[in-house]
DNA sequence: CCCGGTTTGTTCTCCCGTTCACAAACTCCT
DNA sequence: AGGAGTTTGTGAACGGGAGAACAAACCGGG
């Protein structure tokens, strides 16, 4: 493995570079472990956990092996211990401040979602360019003008921004975010954002998901049109 | 590849099996082409289209080659012609009826989203188990009891269902959907659905997206904690 | 102390997707 | 008509991820 050299020079504790695909599954394991823990399960095998997470057990074990050797052969994994290790690896042991820009249909739903808070994300501000939206209070947070972005980002050291504006505004918003020092963006607008290399963007595009389903659906029915 | 046999029996025109990854990008190209068309662009090169879609031009050409040879060497692609070909391949030349179950924060945002309609998806019903939600009208559509699912699915030949209920209800809802004949599910609840093989599920998990960003963010700052 | 049963961690192989690079094909200008 | 310039479509090399399979490690009982 030629990556051994690189791995060796990184910092001592848990800093090996984890494959992209594995990183995307760790949150799923985390959630499954939380559920198991709440059910009072103290220990679980890779088979059980894989079942709860909806993945193959071999894949699960391989994924966990990137973090280190946290299991015990012949026994399994200690639920709470493993949960903490994954949480620490992902970085959700502490709170991440987040700003949401674009408080329309989707932005309001996001602001109202309790699942973010419980997973280590704290919405510190809701921003919207529309003056009519000011003074509105969504999820107990006042909607503020978009120009307040820079001040808020500095004050709370915000690193993560969420874009829920129309597609046409998305690039402008992203540019402003980057200028303020935000380095991670979750984009709901159907527009391919152009950002500097050091800035990470993840996009969520609901229409695309439906279109993928439509494609498969069409093939199932022998490309017949729906009703 | 053992799936070749299956492919062979499908109908003659444009029924090659397209790689998963390509299918996921076709909607992106479709949107980029629509934008170009609205701007009055009649022809575009793979380089231009790739730029508008945010991908590599080589990848774009390879993706399009799975559909057939719709370009002209030395010239490029006819925007409207290519757009139609992709739309036909995906199956969005006709309307797909869709039901949304769970009309809470997220379900309401989805119901109000105009982008689905314009991309070939028609919300035929909003369903919720909470009696308090009945008689509410969201996006001009009346919220109906969950038990109406079967009748609606039959009446409109619905093949695609969207789940926006809490995680604990998601599996029940999915089971009911499958029992009614729905064969494609878009799941927003953070729960790994268990469905028969012939049913396609795509999940959208917003918390996971944020957690992936948090992981990368943590590595950027030398695993330091945020403010 | 030893042995059978269990489960992890890892190795190996295969497949899918990405990217490079280039020949084939087309246009336009002379 | 021919050649220069442009752009597509694809063959081939490469890297990463999925899954099977197995050896190493652990537990408990005798
Ligand atoms: N609603 C959904 O379910 C849904 C589904 C899929 C995709 N999307 C996408 O998510 C985005 C938001 O959707 P929506 O339905 O909430 O739209 P919306 O029109 O309800 O809300 C958009 C909000 O963004 C604000 N805004 C516009 N320009 C801005 C700017 N430059 N700076 C700050 N704020 C600005 C508007 O004032 C408005 O409040 C869109 O890009 C849409 O395509 C939404
Ligand atoms: N709101 C968000 O932005 C957001 C973000 C990420 C994930 N999610 C997920 O999306 C789902 C919905 O989120 P939400 O914020 O809209 O929740 P919500 O509580 O606002 O709405 C859930 C709705 O589902 C209905 N419901 C419950 N059980 C049902 C059943 N068995 N059949 C039919 N309807 C039922 C409830 O009556 C309620 O109206 C949740 O699983 C949540 O984790 C939401």
Describe the structure in brief.
The structure is a homodimer of 227-residue chains. Chain A is an alpha/beta fold and 227 residues long.
Instruction: Give the strand order, joined by hyphens, for the main sheet of chain A.
Output: 6-7-5-4-8-9-10
Tell me the name of the CATH homologous superfamily of the largest domain in chain A. Answer: NAD(P)-binding Rossmann-like Domain
CATH architecture of the largest domain in chain A: 3-Layer(aba) Sandwich
Distance between the termini of chain A: 55 Å
| Helix and strand pattern of chain A | HHEHHEEHEHHEEEHEHEEH
**CATH fold node name of the largest domain in chain A:** Rossmann fold
From the helix content, strand content and strand pairing of chain A, which structural class follows?
Answer: alpha/beta
Oligomer: homodimer
- Unreliable spans of chain A are 1-14
Bound molecules: nicotinamide-adenine-dinucleotide
Major sheet characteristics of chain A: 7 strands, mixed
User: What does the average pLDDT of chain A come to?
Assistant: 91
In total, the number of strands of chain A is 10
Shape of chain A: globular
The value of Rg of chain A in angstroms is: 21 Å
Number of individual domains of chain A: 2
Greatest chain-chain contact: A-B, 73 and 74 residues
| Helix coverage percent of chain A | 40-55%
| Main CATH class of the largest domain in chain A | Alpha Beta
Instruction: Quickly count the helices of chain A.
Output: 10
């Amino acid at each position: 493995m030629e990556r051994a050299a690189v791995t060796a020079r990184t910092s001592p504790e848990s800093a090996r570079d984890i494959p992209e695909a594995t990183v995307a599954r760790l949150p799923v394991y985390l959630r499954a472990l939380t559920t198991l823990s709440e059910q009072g399960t103290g220990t679980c095998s890779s088979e059980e956990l894989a079942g709860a997470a909806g993945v193959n057990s071999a894949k699960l074990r391989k994924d966990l092996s990137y973090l280190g050797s946290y299991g015990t052969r012949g026994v399994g994994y200690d639920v709470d211990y493993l949960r903490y290790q994954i949480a620490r690896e992902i970085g959700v042991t502490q709170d991440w401040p987040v700003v949401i820009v674009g408080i329309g249909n989707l932005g309001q739903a996001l602001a109202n979602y309790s699942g973010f808070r419980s997973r280590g994300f704290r919405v510190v501000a809701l921003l919207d360019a529309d003056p009519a939206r000011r003074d509105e209070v969504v999820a107990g947070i006042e909607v503020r003008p978009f120009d307040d972005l820079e001040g808020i980002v500095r004050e709370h050291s915000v690193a993560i921004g969420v874009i829920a504006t129309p597609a046409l505004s998305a690039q402008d918003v992203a540019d402003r975010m980057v200028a303020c020092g935000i380095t991670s963006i979750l984009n709901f607008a159907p527009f391919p954002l152009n950002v500097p290399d050091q800035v990470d963007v993840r996009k969520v595009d609901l229409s695309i998901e439906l279109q993928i389903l439509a494609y498969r659906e069409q093939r199932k029915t022998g490309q017949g049109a729906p009703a």
